[in-house]
TrEMBL record:
The lineage of its organism: Bacteria, Pseudomonadati, Pseudomonadota, Gammaproteobacteria, Alteromonadales. This is 7,8-dihydroneopterin aldolase. Coiled coil: none annotated. One of its GO terms (biological process) is tetrahydrofolate biosynthetic process. GO terms for cellular component: cytoplasm. It comes from Aliidiomarina haloalkalitolerans. It comes from the Bacteria. GO terms for molecular function: dihydroneopterin aldolase activity; isomerase activity. InterPro entries: Dihydroneopterin_aldolase, FolB_dom, GTP-CH-I_C/QueF. Its EC number is 4.1.2.25. Pathway: Cofactor biosynthesis; tetrahydrofolate biosynthesis; 2-amino-4-hydroxy-6-hydroxymethyl-7,8-dihydropteridine diphosphate from 7,8-dihydroneopterin triphosphate: step 3/4.
Length: 119
């Protein structure tokens, strides 16, 4: 078993969708993230500098999602996974992007990806 830091159900309003009518409205995206991270150093030192700061990750995800209009939720997932790997020193990430208002008859629809930092 190995350590991780999790973010669950981070809701971010976004301009998201492939249809014309979706380009002028905001719809919520709900994001779950699991980031590989050794939590032992932070547990020992009590120092946020040794931790993967989930607040900083949430802020970065929100800023990135709201910086542009998106088409597919797959594009959002790929971009956010790359951001986490490249900006936060994370070596592996599992990320789910859900669009709960997309399909009336479904509670939610989502994509799930796993990415690793290339050496
Ligand atoms: N795999 C996907 N399928 C669909 C997406 C998507 O982002 N990924 N998007 C749409 C539309 O934007 C839809 O959400 C409008 O209700 C359709 N299929």
């Amino acid at each position: 078993m190995s350590d991780s830091v999790l973010i669950e159900a981070l809701e971010i309003p976004a301009v998201i969708g492939i249809y014309e009518w979706e380009k002028s409205i905001q719809q919520p995206l709900v994001i779950d993230v699991e980031m590989a991270w050794d939590n032992h150093a932070a547990a020992t030192s009590g120092d946020i500098a040794d931790a993967l700061d989930y607040a900083a990750v949430c802020q970065a995800l929100e800023t990135a999602v709201q910086a542009q209009a998106w088409g597919l939720i797959e594009e959002v997932a790929e971009a956010l996974a790359a951001l986490i790997l490249n900006q936060f020193g994370v070596v592996a990430v599992r990320l789910r992007v859900a669009k709960p208002t997309a399909i009336k008859a479904a509670r939610t629809v989502a994509v799930l990806i796993e990415r690793k930092r290339s050496a």
